[in-house]
Amino acid sequence: MLRAYVIVFLLFLYAPILLLPVFAFNSGTVIAFPLDGFTLHWFAELAVTKALHEAVVNSLIIAAVTAVISTALGVAAARAGVRYRFPGKAAALGLIMVPLVLPEIIVAVSLLVVVVQIMGWDLSMGTIIAAHVLICTPFATAILNASFQNLDPSLEEAAVDLGESRSSTFRLITLPLIMPGIIAALLISFTISLDEFIIAFFLSGSEPTLPVYIWSMLRFPRLIPVVMALGTILVVLSVLLLTLAEISRRRGLRRAGVKDKGGFL
Amino acid sequence: MIDQIETGARVNQEAKRGWVLVSVPLFYTILLMAAPLTAIFVFSFWSQDFLTLDTTMTLKNYREAFSEPLYAELLSRSIGIAGAVTLVTVVLAFPVAYFVSFHVAPERKSLWLFLITIPFWTSYLLRIFLWKVILGFNGVLNTSLQGIGFIEEPLTFILYNANAVVITLAHAFAPFAILPIFVALEKIDRSLLEAARDLGENAVMTFVRVTLPLAMPGVVAATLIVFIPTVGDYVTPRLVGGPNGLMIANMIQTQFLRLNNAPMGAALAVIAMTTVTVMALLLLAATRKWMRGGGR
């Protein structure tokens, strides 16, 4: 009984993304059943839409920069949290994790007020990156926490005893051991930034990101099949990225010799 | 004696290194989150007339927010919808978390969690849009139900209203609810369950009196992690909510980007955030007896 329920639940979870390719390859222009016939036309249209390509490039740049910065911040937070004891630690780490539960619209409007109304700056890709780093850092920290916790401190101590400096120990011993966690954090942050809509919607100036561009397409019924084709590609890509992240996370666990307890979070 | 001094010095140095490390991400969070939140709070006491910003402190926005029935209705609707979403999501998620924790072989658990989280990471906008396709008048659900002769007329109560918003958000936040409950279930010492059975409790009572109370920290975490962001959701009400399913975030967006009345939008954001924080704290206070010793 329980197993049957779980299978139905998984179907419910996957229903929308399983429907994407169905309509992406359907030649009818209306997104409804019954289906018409098979076509690759919508994918071909993607290849010649220039505005889309610009949005993709913007999104890739934003996601890549976001991933690097938030992973670096995550390394610092997780390392401090796992390795050191200091007064105010719980409060400091707690504050860093808050963006995880803060509604995105609040992040978006508060940054909009600061950037536009108070500072009088123009919105740009930089403002989106700054906000994306804020929301991705907690995820990166959570993943890297696990990596640092699995790290055997006696390995670092041995390196120091054998004459390595603190920085060379970190570079030669610590970094390689947590590398899988770093890769997982990079990939997750990249995926979150690539998919984020609300903040980008409020903070993008003249350079729309991919989700903002998709949002503008959704208003035109004529463009919906093209959006379905684009969505299919995006789903395949993010599943690929997530699988890489998961493989990397598991490799990290094996390297640390710890039993897998599952999950990113 | 010397040993003690040396240990003391090492602890001090440890603390310093810890602070130096944590200060970078902490400074970032303060600069990009705490400072803007303070700014929006101050901003909500200003006023704006078309393009001129008046920085005299006034309660005008709050007076308007509390006297205009539309705002109160949007806020109470947002909380109502978020409450319904949280209830549906947590109730639907619990059996799934229970299944993975108790009925899946340990070496396959992470695969299951991976399967559950994948849809969550993929194209948020399009997932919501596809619910419109599924729930619509000529949608997937109606045509299939008509196809098998289950209904004659298409169901209309499932799109462009609050129901549609609840279904769509429950779908979007499912993994957020499953993961914390799963973690709490994993921490339960299985010998406690055996003990309960040995002492004569049946399976149902063991679940009610042992498993459920021990899983409460996970349920509370799931409740908060679903409730807080859903109150502020913007896209779902906009795409599937229709005129009667709009929520407070849609009004905040309208004030900021359409009406050019950012201070009013700021006031609404502050009110929404305060309400959510108070509700979250009340929930934590009410469930304290289950949370004690729940951490580990």
Describe the structure.
The complex is a heterodimer of chains A (265) and B (296). Chain A has 265 residues and is mostly helical. Chain A has 11 helices and no strands. The longest helix of chain A is centred in the N-terminal third of the chain and has 34 residues, at 50-83. The mean pLDDT of chain A is 87. In chain B, β1 and β2 (52-54) form a beta hairpin. The two termini of chain B are 36 Å apart. By secondary structure, chain B is mainly α. A two-stranded antiparallel sheet of chain B has the order 1-2. Classes of the chains: A mainly alpha (265), B mainly alpha (296). At the A-B interface, α1, α3, α4, α5 and α6 of A face α1, α3, α4, α5 and α6 of B. Chain A: It comes from Thalassobacter stenotrophicus. Chain A: This is Inner membrane ABC transporter permease protein YdcV. Chain A: It holds the Pfam family BPD_transp_1.
* Gross geometry of chain B: flat
**Number of distinct beta strands of chain A:** 0
Shape of chain A: globular
Mean pLDDT of chain B: 86
- For CATH, the homologous superfamily of chain B is named as MetI-like
Structural class of chain A: mainly alpha
Number of domains of chain A: 1
Mean pLDDT of chain A: 87
Low-confidence stretches of chain A: none
- Number of helical stretches of at least 4 residues of chain A: 11
Query: Which architecture name of chain A does CATH use?
Result: Orthogonal Bundle
| Order of neighbouring strands in the sheet with most strands of chain B | 1-2
Span between termini of chain A: 28 Å
